[in-house]
Amino acid sequence: MNAHANSDPAEVRKFSDLAHRWWDPTSEFRPLHEINPLRLDWIDGQTPLAGKTVLDVGCGGGILSEGMAARGASVTGIDLSEKALGVARLHLFESGLKVDYHLTSAEAFAAERPAQFDVVTCMEMLEHVPDPASTVVACARLVKPGGMVFFSTLNRNPKSYLFAIIGAEYVLNLLPRGTHDYAKFIKPSELARHTREAGLETRTLTGMSYNPFSKTYSLGRDTDVNYLLSTARLA
C-alpha cells in the first residue's frame, strides 16, 4: 500500500460533510468535546505536554490538538479532510492558540518527517482506515526514540456492538447512524500486536466508559468498548 492509499474516501467524506459542526458542543461531535478533558489528562499524566513537540494524527477539527496546545505543547495536526482542517484553522482565530495543520496522511508525513516528534497521538482514528497497522507503523516512524505514541479506538465484541453501535447510534443518538463499522473495530490484542511489530512498547491500557444515566464518561479498567493504549518507541 502506498503512502497515500490508506484512506477510505467514504469515511473522509462522512466527516467532511459534518465539519462545520465540529466545534458545536451540542452537535454530533458532542462526545469528542466531553471526552477531551479525560484524554488530555490521561496523556499529560504520562508525559507532561508542556514544551513537547506533538503530532495529532487524524486531528479533524482540532479539538484535541488545541487542548494539547493549551497545555504548552508545540502541536502539529494532520488529516485527510480539507473541510475539517479548514474549520480547525478558522477556530484558531477564536481560541488564539497556535497549531500547524497539514492535509496529508500519516504514512506520507512519516516519509517527510521521521523521528521528529516527542509525542504522537492517534485517537478515534484507527477504526476509520482500511489498514490500521500501516497507520501504527507511520506513528512509530514519526516519534523520536524514547518518545510516546497514544492510541484510542473501539474493541470488537458483542458488547461493543451493542453499546457503540446500537446504543450510541440508534438508541441514545450520541452519534450519527453509520459513524462506525463494527467490522473495523480492533481488539486490544490486535492493536498490541500492531504496536509491537512497529517497534513500540506497551505502557498502559485503559478503558473508557459512558454512563447513560449521569451522561458522563470515565476512565477505568473496562476495556470492552472504548479503550486507550499508551506506547513508547524503543530507543
From TrEMBL:
| EC top class named in words | transferase
The keyword Metal-binding is annotated on this UniProt entry? no
GO terms of molecular function: 2-polyprenyl-6-hydroxyphenol methylase activity; 3-demethylubiquinol 3-O-methyltransferase activity; polyprenyldihydroxybenzoate methyltransferase activity
- Residue positions annotated to bind S-adenosyl-L-methionine are 39, 58, 79, 123
**GO BP terms in the entry:** methylation
Q: Which superkingdom? A: Bacteria
Query: SUPFAM superfamilies from the xrefs?
Result: S-adenosyl-L-methionine-dependent methyltransferases
Its pathway, per UniProt, is: Cofactor biosynthesis; ubiquinone biosynthesis
**Which EC number(s) are documented for this chain?**
2.1.1.222, 2.1.1.64
Q: Name one Pfam family in it.
A: Methyltransf_23
Keywords associated with the record? Methyltransferase, S-adenosyl-L-methionine, Transferase, Ubiquinone biosynthesis
Substrates-to-products reaction catalysed: a 3-demethylubiquinol + S-adenosyl-L-methionine = a ubiquinol + S-adenosyl-L-homocysteine + H(+); a 3-(all-trans-polyprenyl)benzene-1,2-diol + S-adenosyl-L-methionine = a 2-methoxy-6-(all-trans-polyprenyl)phenol + S-adenosyl-L-homocysteine + H(+)
Q: InterPro entries annotated for this entry?
A: SAM-dependent_MTases_sf, UbiG_MeTrfase
Q: What does this protein do?
A: O-methyltransferase that catalyzes the 2 O-methylation steps in the ubiquinone biosynthetic pathway.
Q: Which family does it belong to?
A: Belongs to the methyltransferase superfamily. UbiG/COQ3 family.
- What this protein is called in its record is Ubiquinone biosynthesis O-methyltransferase
Which lineage do the record's taxonomy fields give for this organism? Bacteria, Pseudomonadati, Pseudomonadota, Betaproteobacteria, Rhodocyclales
The gene for this chain is ubiG
